[in-house]
Specification:
With about 240 residues, the protein is α+β, with helices and mostly antiparallel strands. The chain contains three helices and ten strands, in the order ααββββββββββα. It has a domain of about 170 residues: Glucose Permease (Domain IIA) (Distorted Sandwich), CATH 2.70.70.10. It is globular, with a radius of gyration of 20 Å. It binds zinc ion.
């Protein structure tokens, strides 16, 4: 019995050491990415002023509008808190479920597969930045953890190719995360998805099938050179401009 207690204590100490190490390792990164402020905001919203993007806002010369309002917390390519090379943007409305509107980023045709509780995808026949190419924009987590959908009634499951204009209301932010064991906070996941060349969208969970949203929104949103918080700027790319 004594041996059991010794082993039990040893395991506890090891676990505490591991947790401490992970915390110390990740703390500067979390601070740099604003996540420490975000967690603090969750505890006490008045204790920290979290910068928020404005829904429907558009940077000059950028083709897309910001598809929702909130703290742009997890950017393109981020690999933090269990996300591996994040394929899009996570925008946290900070208002709870079913409140913060989500809008179409650009004109196109919206589809919602029959099994999609919280997601829609819009086909854009003409990529505004790469003429001749078809692209898609994907919007998800528009539902709550019990499976209630916040996608608007006019886009029911099974909708195919309904024309939408830039700025059309699609639904509201939520925290639905499918069958995943990982609970999430209320937000919109937004990504720009490549076409397979035969008129179908590719699997957006693989970053290789998605596009850096920076030039489409006119902001540095790629984790390798992102502004935190993001801001409109003409030099949104990670590479120095050719003229410089
Ligand atoms: Zn995401």
């Amino acid at each position: 019995m004594k041996d059991f207690i010794k082993w039990f204590l040893a395991v506890i100490v090891m676990l505490l050491l591991c947790v401490g190490f992970v915390y110390l390792y990740s703390y500067p990164r979390l601070r740099e990415k604003g996540l420490v402020d975000y967690f603090q905001h969750r505890q006490d919203p008045d204790s920290v002023d979290l910068p928020r993007a404005t829904g429907l806002a558009q940077c000059s010369a950028a083709p897309f509008i910001m598809p929702t309002a909130g703290w742009v917390g997890i950017l393109y390519g981020d690999s933090i808190l269990g996300t591996v090379n994040h394929s899009g943007l996570d925008i946290f409305g900070l208002e709870g479920n079913g409140i913060t509107p989500v809008y179409a980023a650009y004109d196109g045709y919206v589809t919602r597969l029959p099994e999609w509780v919280s997601a829609v995808i819009i086909r854009h026949p003409e990529d505004p930045l790469v003429p001749g190419r078809q692209i898609w924009t994907y919007y998800t987590h528009m539902g709550d953890s019990s499976g209630r959908s916040y996608v608007i009634d006019q886009i029911p499951p099974g909708t195919v190719e309904l024309p939408v204009k830039q700025g059309t209301l699609l639904g509201y932010q939520g925290d639905y995360n499918g069958q995943s064991w990982r609970p999430i906070d209320t937000h919109l996941h937004f990504s720009i998805v490549l076409d397979d060349g035969n008129g179908k969208f590719l699997n957006e969970t693989d970053i290789a099938n998605t596009i850096d949203p920076s030039p489409y929104l006119g902001m540095r949103l790629n984790t390798t050179c992102a502004d935190r918080p993001p801001l409109c700027r003409p030099d949104f790319g990670c590479e120095p401009l050719a003229s410089q």
